[in-house]
Write a structure and sequence with these properties.
321 residues, five-stranded mixed beta sheet, two-stranded antiparallel sheet, alpha+beta, 14% strand
Length: 321
């Protein structure tokens, strides 16, 4: 699979450089052809002049001046087109390198993210199988195993749903649903999975919207997962759901390090993760918030991130009721 990906990458790179060189060569050929035509027309006009004509010097100067003007015009146009072509090529190449780097990081991260919960679950089950543990320790190991399996399930769901949504293979199943119950269920699930965390909720009951229950569940889970991932253990995680007029607002608020203003829009891009790939400690694939943005857009909702003072983030999703 990796060899095929490299071959495809080399093939795309070869086409890119071939097209770039072809465009540059075409511009040079265009300039030479026009300049030759300009020279030929100038010679033709000069040959038409009569040496005994009293206005010969004036006409000669006009013809040569016109030749110089056209040459300058061709040079200016050529330089402009060449500069635009090279600048565009540079932006495309940088975007290509960035996407390639993000995909490579994504593959490495996914490999690690898949292996870690499998290894932890396997170790816990082997420990339970080989040793007769006290009930409290046994329950703790089982709880840890369930958490890792849930994390693995969420990761696989994100990858599969992301691929289906982008490939337009996912069939939306819009229905009237109780968003309050859906958010409350997800919140209680996270609260039981992470009992050591500090949780608070304000969920107004019986708020109904039209949407796909699976996708909305993934949206809420990803926002809560993101809050758990980046919040300190002593930090408070809040989940709010309320309605005003025809708007339904879902908020997930954490007390983590926050997001710089210049990266607030970037966090919703596919594979994008804040910080350096080699130094960041938080786990993730860069798909969670991308999926949230995609799901919100498919439900004609808007998602944005704001600062939670004095520290942290407030991810809010606004639905039209």
């Amino acid at each position: 699979m990796q060899a095929a990906s490299k071959k495809r990458l080399y093939f795309i790179s070869a086409i890119y450089w071939f097209l770039l060189l072809y465009i540059v060569a075409a511009l040079i050929w265009w300039f030479i052809a026009l300049e030759n035509q300009n020279r030929q027309m100038t010679n033709y006009k000069l040959n038409e002049l009569i040496l005994d004509d009293p206005k010969y010097p004036e006409k000669y100067d006009q013809i040569t001046a016109e030749k110089k003007r056209k040459t300058a015009q061709y040079i200016g146009e050529g330089i402009t087109f060449l500069a635009l072509t090279l600048i565009s090529a540079l932006f495309v190449y940088r975007a290509f390198l960035r996407l390639q780097h993000q995909q490579q990081n994504f593959m490495m991260t996914v490999t690690h993210e898949l292996k870690t919960p499998i290894a932890v679950a396997k170790l816990n089950l082997e420990t339970l199988q080989k040793h007769a543990l006290e009930e409290s320790k046994r329950q703790k190991l089982l709880q840890m195993t369930v958490q890792e399996v849930n994390r693995l399930n969420a990761l696989v769901n994100n990858i599969l749903v992301s691929a289906q949504l982008e490939g337009r293979r996912y069939r939306m199943s819009y229905e009237e649903l109780d968003l309050s119950e859906l958010v409350k269920s997800s919140f209680n699930d996270f609260k039981s999975r992470f009992p050591e965390r500090h949780w608070a909720s304000s969920i107004i009951p019986e708020i109904d919207i039209t949407g796909d229950s699976l996708l909305l569940q993934i949206l809420v889970n990803n926002l809560l997962e993101n809050a758990v991932k980046y919040s300190p253990k002593e930090g408070l995680i809040q989940c709010k759901l309320h309605a005003a007029n025809k708007q339904v607002l879902l908020e997930v608020i954490d007390q983590g390090p926050g997001i710089p203003d210049d990266e607030k829009r970037k966090v919703f891009e596919k594979f994008y993760r804040i910080g350096n790939e080699n130094t960041r400690t938080a786990k993730g694939t860069g798909l969670g918030l991308f999926l949230c943005h995609k799901i919100a857009k498919d439900h004609k909702a808007t998602i944005r991130v704001m600062d939670n003072l004095p520290t942290g983030c407030n991810f809010s999703v606004s639905f039209t009721k």
